[in-house]
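We close this part of the discussion by returning to an individual protein. In the encoding step, the backbone of a single protein was reduced to a row of integers, each denoting a local shape. The sequence in question and its structure tokens are set out directly beneath this paragraph.
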Amino acid sequence: MKVVVNGKAVELKEALSLEELLKTLSISNTRVAIAVNNTVIPKEKWASTTLKEGDKVLIVKPVQGG
């Protein structure tokens, strides 16, 4: 199954939840925001939101700056 994460194609062996995707990509699930197909998914729904073929995922981490 292929999805696009932050503009890059990612091949997954099976459908994953957003929570599982973060673990697979070694991304800490603290202080990130996730949108799937341009819809922001609340953190409490990450475990129950399963990715589908062709989904476009945007994972955003806050960056401190000035």
